[in-house]
Amino acid sequence: MKALVIIPTYNEIENIHRIISAVLKQHPSIEILIVDDNSPDGTGDEVEKMRADNSRIHLMRRPRKLGLGTAYVAGFKWALQQNFNYVFEMDADFSHDPNDLPRFLKEIKNYDLVIGSRYIHGISVINWPMSRLLLSYFANIYASLVTGCPVKDLTAGFKCFRREVLEKLNLDRIHSDGYSFQIEIHFKVYQQGFKIKEIPIIFIDRTEGKSKMSKKIIWEAIFMVWRLRLAKIFRRL
Fold this sequence. Notes:
By secondary structure, the protein is of the alpha/beta class. It has helices at 16-24, 43-51, 68-81, 101-107, 130-147, 163-168, 178-191, 215-234, and strands at residues 3-9, 30-36, 57-61, 86-89, 113-117, 125-126, 159-162, 196-200, 203-204.
C-alpha cells in the first residue's frame, strides 16, 4: 500500500514542520506532497530542508499563488504518475486532525472515496463564529439540494481517494477553486457511481497563520452548484 497526503501551502511557516511530522508518524506507508505557491514566508524552503533528511517528504514548487483547486489537481496527477494507491486531501493548519488518517485508511478498503464530514452528527466545528458556522451548514444543504448529490458535507476538504477514482475523473476539466472545487469533485465522483463514505470528524479552525477564505470563493461556490446542475441536465460532465 502506498498512500500520499497532498497539502497545498501558502504562508504556512508556523504550521509546516509540525504538520509534516504529525502526518508521517501516523503510518509508515504514508508519504506527503507539499504543493507550495511560492510562499513569501519561506514555507517551501523549510520543506526543502526537511525533505533532505526524509525520502517520504516531497515538494512541488509553483511560481505564484495559483489557488487550491489547481494545487490539488497538480498533486493528483503527480500521485498517479508515482503509482500511489490512496491519495488524501488535507489542510496545513491542523483544522484537519492528522490522528484521523488511520481511520480513513481503514474505511477506504471498502469504499472509493472517504470524506471527513463536519455535519453527520449535528455540527462538529470548533472556533468558528456563529455566522460562519450557519453559513457553512446551510450552504452545504443548499448545494446538496441543487446538485442532487447526497453528500452531507459537500465543501469538506479532508478526504481519501482510491487511485481508480482519480484515473476516471477528467482532471483537465476541473478549474474551480476553494469550496467550489470540493463541491465539483464530490459531485463528479458521485455521478461516476463510485462508493462514497462519510466519517465524522471534528474540524478545528486554525490557531496559527491567516485564513485563505474570501467572499470571491463563497460566490464562486454559489454559482458552481448551478453550473453542475445544468451540466447534469444537459449531460456535459
